Amino acid sequence: MNRKKILVTGGAGFIGGNFVQYMVNKYPNYDIYNLDLLTYAGDLTKHREIENKDNYHFVKADIADREAIMSLFEKEKFNYVAHFAAESHVDRSITEPEIFVETNVLGTQVLLNAAKEIGVTKFVHVSTDEVYGELDFNPTTFFTEETPLQPNSPYSASKASSDFLVRAYHETFGLPVNITRCSNNYGPFHFPEKLIPLTISRVLNEEKVPVYGDGKNIRDWLHVLDHCAAIDLVLHEGVNGEVYNVGGHNERTNLEVVKTIINTLGKSEDLIEFVADRLGHDKRYAIDPTKLEKLGWNPTYTFETGIAQTIQWYLDNKWWWEQIISGEYQNYFKRQYLFN
């Protein structure tokens, strides 16, 4: 019996990295290929526990490198693609938008073309609720799969563009695809530039925690392991061509999130420092995941249980985030893969 091969792009990042670990451990009879360029947010130290397993494989490559990607697909004949690779930091997209177009749009097209050429069983494109734009503060309104796309940042515009490409490859070429759009993720191995890990690391170091504007912007928080389970389900059971929203039913203002972390760690709220608001800062995101729930998925973490687990993980794994902040993690690839 042939072993199924799954390509996970962006598997050295936060969500993709957690998905790689989830799949390697859950499916020992699948070969999981982690493809990542190892840009500043790409970290392989998180995979120390799985890197020697027989069903884990790492490939360093740029998804926008057409020749390298086509060669890889022709060689390995992947059954599935789970496409996480993307530039995702909104602040960086405001100062360097061209990088987001190259990776998120052109890179996705290169992958889609390779997937079409070899005939993959399923291509799952992992997108974001940010492509829908923003909601007002009415607690009865939510993003559904039918909500029009109205991205407000270069990041979300690049993701919306890649969503349209995925849809086009399904409609034009019959490529079996799904698009998932998730709310804000949190959990282990979250790069320290994002709100929750930034707050945890700053508070533990007794440093000021920056909060944009008045801190009242609302996000729907989804634990990354719940997200991994959702992608697994869509990969195997998703109806071809369909979009599935993934949300955690956990709306909180940014200020509430920061205060929860500070209070859990027993520190003073005087560490909070309000800073000038982000350009084009969306007011609220909130997901209606009913369609995915009907497929068989439900989140297992409430925000209370998830944030407690996450804070404890950062307390127990200072080795990880301290070497991320120092930059030492960037030497891991050289030590483990180039010099061994």
Structural features, described:
The protein has 340 residues and is α/β, with parallel strands linked by helices. The protein has a domain at 4-186 and 221-250 and 281-304: 3-Layer(aba) Sandwich (Rossmann fold). 42% of the residues lie in helices and 17% in strands. It is built from 12 helices and 12 strands. It has helices spanning 14-26, 66-76, 90-95, 97-118, 154-173, 195-204, 224-237, 254-264, 290-295, 303-316, 318-326, 332-338, and strands at residues 4-9, 30-36, 56-60, 80-83, 122-128, 177-182, 184-186, 209-212, 218-223, 243-246, 251-253, 272-275. The chain has a 7-stranded parallel sheet, sandwiched between helices. Strands 7-9-11 form a 3-stranded mixed sheet. Strands 8-12 form a two-stranded parallel ribbon. The longest helix has 22 residues, at 97-118. The model has no long low-confidence stretch (mean pLDDT 94).
